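Format notes (please read before filing issues)

Several people have asked whether sequences and structure tokens are stored in separate files. They are not. Every record keeps both together, in the order shown below: the sequence lines, then the token lines. Line labels are part of the format and must not be stripped during preprocessing.
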Amino acid sequence: MESRLDRIEKGIEKLFDGIAALQESQAKTDEQLNRTDEQLSKTIKKLDDIGRQLGDLGLVQGEVAEDLFFRNVRYLFKEERDLIFSDVKRNLKKKGSGEYDIVAVNGDAVLVIEVKNKLQNRMVDNFVEKKLPKFKKTFPEYRGRRLFGGIGALVVKDAVGRYAEKAGLYVLTQTTEGGAGLINRKNFRAKEFS
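Then the structure lines:
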């Protein structure tokens, strides 16, 4: 017959066995969590690398688009609009005030062109409502000239191109041959901005 003390000792033994099993299980869980943390850290690092690469790709695409339109602006406007620019500048900027992708001068007129990778309506609105109106304040040397706007993008959907045209902007995009072209309609008259 088992005494009360024997039963207590067996209970304590079971309790200690349970605690040992729990500690062993906790150790396995901790080890698994450490492996998961390592894996998560590696995944985060890979995602950061991918993000940097995509950012770099976007910058490169932006430079390609800017270069395409910069190199072709004189030709396009001479051939298609009979406008001859005496001076074309790229990345005209004033620290803390603004930056303009392409600025072309024709006698008493100046054409400011904003360049994007893929054109969207909100970009047109931002350029027309916010950026273009600040141009003459930022660069007072152009105050005496008439101001026109243009927007160029590697990708321009028809509806967005028409939206930009209705806003009074010249619209430039890449051609199917990889060159640059104006997609404004023949009867288009650019808006003069103040």
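For reference, the curators noted about this record: The chain is about 55% helix and 25% strand. The longest helix spans residues 4-81.
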